[in-house]
Each structure stands twice: as structure tokens, then as C-alpha cells.
């Protein structure tokens, strides 16, 4: 036996408007459906990323814990952290880590970042013909294939190259730069090739700064360096963080430029982690050990990314 709904004022019977659920539960169902509908357009991209990025990365992570080799082995076996212990006990690996940090700091954090900001600031004040010519020259170096850029810089730094010819003409001491300072030579080559990206990023950021602010600071007597330090840099802080993150990740993975110029030599004095990984995996056929080095390089890039993402989240 069921009871009738209670009557309201005036004898009007109230009927329920929906299922016998509490109000939060009734609202959560449509909200969940809206979330699923919003996720449908991006689901193909998520599937592709899972197949072509997460899948290979996961497989490489598994190989890093095995003794897989290209030749001379019937089947691989799981060896745990032996590859990583061998890497941290290998002086050549530690040398590659050090050279990778030197190469990244010199060519990305200092070289491309500083030179790109300087070019963007100078081009903002230059005439249109100067901006056009400078932009064309810098961007041409950027769009050149990495192998072509490597050959050009090899011809510039070699013993009979352009740099020594200029130094001899000026009666200045010359040397075999590819032998005496190989890591500095490849760092300069990466700066020459990659500065255009930083210049474009900073040009866009500087154009967003209101002219009224800089003009007011100039009227108040602030010089160029003070305006740069107290006004320009704080206002483009997020662009600086984004540029540093992208440049650092790109520099950590540079392979072709160094391979063409020095092949990691002489000896191992310009052998960064990508070249060391290639040597172990494909020249010595130790795929498991080389993949472990690649996984460590991925961890290094992730640490840099976390630092830069922290800077981007920090309020100015």
C-alpha cells in the first residue's frame, strides 16, 4: 500500500520533479556527460600520442633494464639496474654528462638566449632595411639543414678554414680550433644556427610591451640598462622561461651538428650524451646499455622542464 504525496497549502498535491536522488547526484550526471562530450574531439590525438609516444617510450624503458644486443645474442634477459650502475661507473659516461651540460649552458642558456635578446632589442630600434637584412641572415642560418650547417662551421673552424685565414691576415695567432677547443667550436656552431628562434620569440615579446611605459621611464631619467633590467626583463619573464625551456630541450638532443663537425672527438672531448648513446647502441651493438643512457637523457630533459615550468607558474 502506497501513500499519496503530501498536500501543500490549499490542498494542492506536490509531485516529485525527478528521480529520488539528492540534488548533488542529479547535477553530477549531466556534468560527467558534458565532460565526456568535451573530451571526444581530442580523443584521436590522445590515442595517437599513446601509440606513437607513450608506447615507444615505455618499450624503451623496458629495454633499458635488459642486456639486449644487436648481434651475437639469441635472446635478451632482464638484468635490473645493471645498465645504470655500469653507466654511473663509466668515466666516459660521466665525461659525456659534463660535456652535455657545458654544451647546453654555453650554446643555449648563455649563447642563444643572450644573443637572441640582444638582436631583438637592437632590431626594434633599427631602420626597416637593417631589420630586413639582419632578420634574413639570421633566419637563413636557422632554416639550413643541420648537416649543411655542420659542414659550413667545420669549414670555418678547421686548420685551413676561414677563421684562421682572417687571423693570419690580421697577424694574430691561429690554431687548430677543432683540436684544441672542440666543445667551444660546436657550441658556437649551435649558437650560430639556433639564435634565430630566440630572436623571433623575443621580438614578439618586446612588441607587446606598451611604449608608454618605456617612454615614461626614459622621461624619469632611467638609462637603457636600467630600463632593460627593471622594466623589459620583468615584463617578458614568461617569454624568457618558454624560450629557455624549448632551447634547452632542443640543445640536449643535438646530434647531427656535432657528428658532422667532430664525431665527438678528438678522443671524446666533444662527445655529448646523444653521441655516447649512439656509440654504445649502434657502434658497439649494446642496445640495452645505449637505451639506458637515452633514458637518463630523458630524465635530464624532464628535470630542466620541471624547473622552467616552475618559473612559468611563478607570478611576476
Automatic annotation (TrEMBL):
Q: Which domain of life is it from?
A: Bacteria
Q: Known PANTHER family for this protein?
A: BLR7065 PROTEIN, SPERMIDINE_PUTRESCINE TRANSPORT SYSTEM PERMEASE PROTEIN
Q: Which family does it belong to?
A: Belongs to the binding-protein-dependent transport system permease family.
**Stored SUPFAM superfamilies:** MetI-like
Gene3D superfamilies hit by this protein: MetI-like (1.10.3720.10)
Regions that span the bilayer = 36-65, 96-120, 132-157, 177-202, 244-266, 286-309
Q: Which residues form a coiled coil?
A: none
Q: Where is this region: Disordered?
A: 1-28
Record keywords: Cell membrane, Membrane, Transmembrane, Transmembrane helix, Transport
Its membrane topology, per UniProt? Multi-pass membrane protein
Q: Which organism is it from?
A: Streptomyces alfalfae
Q: Where is the ABC transmembrane type-1 domain?
A: 98-308
Protein's name in the database:
Amino acid ABC transporter permease
Keyword Acyltransferase tagged? no
**Subcellular location as annotated:** Cell membrane
Task: Tell whether Cell membrane is among the UniProt keywords.
Answer: yes
Amino acid at each position: 500500500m502506497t501513500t499519496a504525496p503530501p498536500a501543500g497549502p490549499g490542498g494542492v498535491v506536490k509531485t516529485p520533479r525527478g528521480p529520488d536522488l539528492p540534488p548533488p547526484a542529479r547535477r553530477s550526471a549531466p556534468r560527467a556527460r558534458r565532460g565526456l562530450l568535451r573530451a571526444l574531439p581530442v580523443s584521436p590525438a590522445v590515442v595517437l600520442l599513446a601509440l606513437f609516444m607513450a608506447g615507444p617510450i615505455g618499450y624503451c624503458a623496458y629495454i633499458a633494464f635488459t642486456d639486449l644486443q644487436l648481434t651475437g645474442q639469441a635472446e635478451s634477459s632482464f638484468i635490473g639496474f645493471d645498465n645504470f650502475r655500469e653507466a654511473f661507473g663509466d668515466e666516459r659516461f660521466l665525461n659525456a654528462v659534463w660535456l652535455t651540460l657545458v654544451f647546453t649552458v654555453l650554446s643555449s642558456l648563455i649563447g642563444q638566449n643572450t644573443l637572441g635578446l640582444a638582436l631583438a632589442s637592437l632590431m626594434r630600434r633599427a631602420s626597416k632595411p637593417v631589420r630586413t637584412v639582419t632578420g634574413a641572415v639570421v633566419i637563413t642560418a636557422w632554416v639550413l639543414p643541420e648537416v649543411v650547417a655542420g659542414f659550413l662551421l667545420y669549414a670555418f673552424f678547421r686548420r685551413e678554414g676561414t677563421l684562421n685565414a682572417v687571423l693570419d691576415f690580421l697577424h694574430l695567432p691561429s690554431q687548430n680550433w677543432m683540436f684544441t677547443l672542440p666543445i667551444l667550436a660546436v657550441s658556437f656552431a649551435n649558437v650560430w644556427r639556433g639564435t634565430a628562434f630566440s630572436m623571433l620569440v623575443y621580438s614578439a615579446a618586446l612588441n607587446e610591451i606598451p611604449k608608454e611605459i618605456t617612454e615614461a621611464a626614459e622621461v624619469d631619467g632611467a638609462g637603457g640598462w636600467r630600463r632593460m633590467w627593471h622594466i623589459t626583463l620583468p615584463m617578458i619573464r614568461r617569454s624568457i622561461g618558454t624560450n629557455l625551456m624549448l632551447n634547452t630541450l632542443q640543445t640536449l638532443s643535438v646530434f647531427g651538428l656535432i657528428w658532422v663537425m667532430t664525431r665527438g672527438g678528438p678522443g671524446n672531448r666533444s662527445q655529448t650524451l646523444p653521441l655516447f648513446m649512439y656509440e654504445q647502441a649502434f657502434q658497439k651493438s649494446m642496445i640495452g646499455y645505449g637505451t639506458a643512457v637515452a633514458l637518463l637523457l630523458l630524465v635530464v630533459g624532464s628535470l630542466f622542464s620541471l624547473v622552467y615550468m616552475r618559473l612559468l607558474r611563478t607570478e611576476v
